[in-house]
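queue> pop job 88
queue> type: inverse folding (structure -> sequence)
queue> payload:
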């Protein structure tokens, strides 16, 4: 079957249906899953993938594409090819690091124009909350953004300033009753003593400069706002287990609050980061192994709702690889292509099942983004977005096989379990065994919010 062609049906001995893996044929019509049948019930052209696992495509709702304006860091063409190679069938693009940022309707239109004709997978878009743009929020909701992102600390780029308490109250007032969601980079500046070890090439010095208390205090603010306004709130890239009890308390009190963590916090440990290895720098920072163990426990207990890449690339010079200075290096990790095998390699050793992968990497991420009526599930009526992969097969991450624009990543040379064999987006074969369809087939996804009268229970993820 040629790349770019329309798939009529997929047959496998291992199709994930609900919590069960069993033989099935997925019949596809007009880009949607039409029927799920037993082998004996289907006759016709079929893509037979043997005993490769067939699951809903990954929905990565935390991706910095950076186009327009900083496409030397990453662009839609390279980012979405990398996504397709990793079994990701939908990404949701963050509003910052592009110039202009997605903080007005006009800027959103520029973003859509920049992405046109370049997406190999389907793409939705977050808007941004910055000081004094509260009157842009409802128009951006009408225009189709999935929700909004804000920072409680300097974002790293001047054109996306962090918000004050006054800005947050103004934004929350605008978002009440809309069904939209506000995402928080949850770190706050706190008074602290300078780190004892001042060597900027030592990871420990950087880690001491961003202690857990910064996340705890930020999340305290988020929970109070969430309870006060009853606006859906979401904590992005939780790195510290410290605030988990705060989050649980707020949820018990009725806060519509969700939380994500990332592959790097689950796979990497502070103790293992070499001096000067700035490819490991991200904000919040990668913390110690004891903290990581707590994150895994929280994930298993349902206290953390989803796992994302937070793909945040840059050019090698901004990573300060020559000097190895953690204080000066850009904070961001590239992993969009490798999220599925990164998660599975660690999670499978901890008793997680394939159904957990779909729940944490597809269904809940689609729900957060307002895409859960069409993405993230393998059922009739949903988009025929499929990842076909081999969970037992191992591979080594080599630079030649990385499809991100910039190849610098802490995972170079790492061996992982789980090889993506093929990716299907709305019934079209976009990737197979290292090759891509000749033209981008992805669509822009403009999110339509439900009636404000309907209470959105996003904190009750199923």
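queue> result:
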């Amino acid at each position: 079957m040629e790349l770019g062609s329309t798939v009529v049906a997929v047959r496998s001995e291992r199709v994930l249906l609900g919590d069960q893996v069993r033989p099935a044929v997925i019949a596809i019509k007009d880009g949607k899953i039409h029927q799920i049948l037993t082998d004996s019930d289907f006759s016709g052209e079929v893509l037979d993938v043997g005993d490769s696992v067939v699951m809903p495509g990954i929905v990565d709702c935390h991706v910095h594409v950076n186009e327009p304006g900083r496409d030397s860091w990453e662009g839609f063409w390279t980012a979405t090819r990398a996504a397709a190679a990793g079994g990701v069938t939908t990404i949701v693009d963050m509003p910052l690091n592009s110039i202009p940022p997605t903080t007005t309707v006009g800027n959103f239109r520029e973003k859509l124009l920049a992405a046109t004709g370049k997406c190999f997978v389907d793409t939705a878009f977050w808007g941004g909350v910055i000081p004094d743009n509260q009157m842009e929020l409802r128009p951006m909701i009408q225009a189709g953004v999935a929700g909004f992102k804000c920072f409680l600390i300097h974002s790293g780029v001047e054109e996306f300033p962090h918000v004050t308490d006054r800005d947050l109250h103004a934004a929350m007032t605008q978002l009440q009753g809309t069904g939209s969601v506000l995402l928080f980079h949850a770190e706050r500046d706190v008074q602290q003593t300078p780190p004892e070890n001042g060597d900027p090439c030592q990871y420990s010095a950087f880690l001491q400069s961003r202690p857990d208390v910064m996340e705890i205090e930020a999340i305290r603010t988020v929970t109070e706002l969430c309870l006060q306004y009853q606006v859906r709130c979401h904590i992005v890239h939780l790195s510290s287990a410290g605030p988990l009890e705060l989050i649980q308390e707020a949820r018990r009190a009725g806060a519509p609050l969700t939380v994500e963590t990332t592959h790097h916090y689950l796979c990497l440990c502070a103790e293992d980061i070499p001096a000067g290895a700035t490819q490991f720098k991200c904000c919040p920072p990668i913390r110690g192994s004891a903290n990581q163990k707590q994150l895994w426990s929280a994930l298993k207990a349902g206290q953390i709702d989803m796992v994302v890449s937070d793909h945040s690339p840059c050019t090698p010079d901004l990573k300060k690889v020559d000097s190895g200075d953690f204080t000066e290096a850009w904070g961001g990790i590239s992993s969009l292509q490798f999220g599925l095998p990164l998660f599975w390699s660690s999670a499978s050793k901890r008793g997680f099942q394939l159904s957990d992968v779909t729940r944490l990497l597809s269904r809940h991420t689609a729900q957060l983004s307002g895409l859960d009526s069409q993405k993230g599930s393998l059922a009739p009526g949903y988009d025929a977005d499929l990842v076909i992969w081999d969970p037992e097969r191992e591979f080594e991450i080599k630079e030649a096989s990385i499809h991100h624009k910039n190849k610098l990543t802490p995972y170079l040379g790492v061996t992982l379990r789980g090889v993506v064999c093929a990716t299907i987006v709305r019934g079209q074969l976009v990737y197979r065994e290292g090759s891509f369809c000749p033209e981008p087939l992805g669509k822009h996804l403009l999110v339509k919010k439900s009636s404000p009268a309907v209470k959105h229970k996003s904190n009750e993820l199923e």
